[in-house]
Amino acid sequence: MADDDALRRADPGQLLTIASELARAAGERARAMREEGISQVSTKSTPTDVVTAADRAAERLIVEELRERRPYDHVLGEESGAHRGDGGGSRVRWLVDPIDGTVNYLYGIPYYAVSLGVEVDGEVVAGVVRNPVTGEEWSAVRGGGAHRDGRRLTGSTVTELSQTMVATGFGYDPARRAHQARVVASLLAEVRDIRRFGAAALDLCLVAEGRVDAFYEKGLAPWDLAAGGLIAEAAGVLVTGLRGRPAGKRMTLAAPASVHGELHDRLVAWDAEGGP
Ligand code: IPD
Ligand code: CA
Hints:
Radius of gyration: 18 Å
Number of domains: 2
Bound molecules: D-MYO-inositol-1-phosphate, calcium ion
CATH topology of the largest domain: Fructose-1,6-Bisphosphatase, Chain A, domain 1
Largest sheet: 8 strands, mixed
CATH class of the largest domain: Alpha Beta
Oligomer: single chain
Strand content: 15-25%
């Protein structure tokens, strides 16, 4: 019985330890497969939305390990969907992106990551994002700050929109992209510069670290946002949607309080949530 309780325990620190171990193992699997060469590439929502054998293998590794180590927890994986925990499940749900930045992975661009967010009762309480090429790992526990490799993160100190370096991303649907292109064209004239790196979870970690000042994107999935969103928030960055809504599919805006309001108002004015 005591063992059963331990398997259901929802301690964020313990969950973070597991997340970190799994991110390392899955990242290693993906990196090794990349070195052997890419095989079995198929497409998902559009011809440019790809999934590789490594996405599936890394997710399988994570799901199997979780079934073993946390059999009562629920899991939502980008590639394999929802897995219910045994016997009705625990209070914990894992949000798994086995490779965030799959297109970078495909091209051999070393900017992709395993992203693992852990919810307890629907709230993200722990998150890990790991780039297996550089070995950089960002993590956070709600209330415990955000860290990269032991260093506490506090976001950027930028104070003016005109000095703000903004990362963003685009969806896979061409019609959505056309709308996103209009928004980014307007923004480009008002900020220091724009970056499109290609992995939203890592972009949010860069905001946490102040390696870019801000990030916004329409259309993020829960597995793109869970870990990176918590990491940015735990670094003191505001992570929101527009017009008082929480960050999510309609819009995710992560920015220091000093420029969040101005960026928010621009995105509203340009109807960044709009379009397909
Ligand atoms: C994508 C990346 C990209 C973002 C897309 C995501 P995936 O995730 O995070 O940067 O712009 O919206 O779908 O497909 O590489 O897991
Ligand atoms: Ca992915």
